Amino acid sequence: MNKFINIVMIIILIMSIFWTVYLKFPQFRVIKEVKKFTKKYPKHDTFKTFLVSLATNLGTGNLVGVTTGIIIGGPGVVVWMWIFGFFSSVLSYVENIYAIKYQEKIDGENRGGACYYILKGLNNPILSLAFAFFLLLTNTLFFPPIQVNTIIKSLIGVIPINRYAAGICLIIFIILIVTKGTNKIINITNRIVPTMTISFMLVILVLLFLKIDVLWDSIKLIFNSALNFKSIGISVLLNTITVGIKRSLFSHEAGLGTMPSITGMSNAPTPTIQGYFGMLGVYVDTLLMCTITGIVIVQLNIDFNQFEGADLVIEIFKSNFGIFGCLMGSIFLFIFAFSSLLGQYYLGESNALLFTKFCKIKGKNIIFIYQIIFIIGLIIGIYFNMQIIIGLVDIGLLLLGGTNIIVLCLLEKKDKIAKTT
């Protein structure tokens, strides 16, 4: 299974390079287009939608994602996260364009995403239903457990509490929030994400400069580990590449068909601008957050194999600030993982509503069933260890990424929207 997943990840990288060339490197137009739009529409809800999608990504994908990547594949994973992040951002551009084109209103709210552009764009209800099922599994049983596991470890790091007791408290808290509706989720993430992202970056930058004497050595180690196949061997290099791709993909989710479910609720004036905002999210998520986090981890110059993931994040702050750092690291872990969990809930709920098109169950009943499955995913995160949870994440990457990349190619062959917008 792992070898098959690795092959699919390499294919996604190759297709990302193809799309980049096909669309004439839109990566280099992102900042210009977003700046022009925000100047013209300073309070447009496109930016709010961007923050919700960013909240979903700026969590364990950045923190535990990059730490587990380095633990498994070595420091060179960071370079391959950069490379894949740059090229795969174009997939976010394309899928968000199609999400806006084929969005529709359900119960007065905009809904969209991969399932909708498969159903309306390809006129393929069977594939749309299959992808909705994949998303249902991924956003309940495959992705949320890693957020839950991280939240619990962040709590245990500062509070003398049993993991199961912490898990029960978390489940009750999540239920209280999600039953308030999607507007509550949007309001919470709009308040949390900007402040915590800026705070995290500032603290990490301080840590970089505290050990600036080893900064250059750390960067050289990252590149040597990523590219020096003569000293590390082909098999080790391939492992580093595939781990980097998988952790990068989990970090920003570009091309998985997940983020369009969130951006599909936007009232973007044009599909193209939503595409550029999608790419900006990848830049912030991987090229910025994962980069500075990865360098700080390498600066520690310790044996990474003694850690599991979340505990290495806490070690970053603890080794520099002592007990206060332990508290700081736990707070960052908790808030980022919690905001990601809320974003994933909304993402899954949007797609769960699609099942109303294929069966006679009311939307409220569909959502109730979805919430039950979501709670099962929370329980998985409480009970199982990180190794099993990472395996679940990779299965989700395989199901979504492998399917969505084919869908995008079929849509572009039919409509040629991304090329002409």
Helical content stands at: over 70%
- How far apart are the first and last residues' alpha carbons, in Å? 38 Å
Mass-distribution shape: globular
Can you give the mean pLDDT?
A: 83
How many strands, what sense, and barrel or not for the largest sheet?
2 strands, antiparallel
Q: State the secondary-structure class.
A: mainly alpha
Compute the CA-based radius of gyration: 20 Å
Strand content: under 5%
> Count of helices?
19
Number of strands: 2
Task: Walk me through this protein's architecture.
It is a single chain. With 421 residues, the chain is an all-alpha fold. It has helices at residues 2-22, 30-40, 45-57, 64-73, 77-101, 114-121, 125-142, 144-156, 163-178, 182-210, 215-227, 229-232, 234-252, 260-263, 271-299, 310-352, 363-383, 386-415, 417-420; strands at 104-106, 109-111. A hairpin with a 2-residue loop joins strand 1 (104-106) and strand 2 (109-111). The model has no long low-confidence stretch (mean pLDDT 83).
Task: Note the main attributes of this structure.
mainly alpha, 79% helix
Task: Please specify the SSE layout and strand pairing.
Blueprint: H1 2-22, H2 30-40, H3 45-57, H4 64-73, H5 77-101, E1 104-106, E2 109-111, H6 114-121, H7 125-142, H8 144-156, H9 163-178, H10 182-210, H11 215-227, H12 229-232, H13 234-252, H14 260-263, H15 271-299, H16 310-352, H17 363-383, H18 386-415, H19 417-420
Antiparallel strand pairs: 1-2
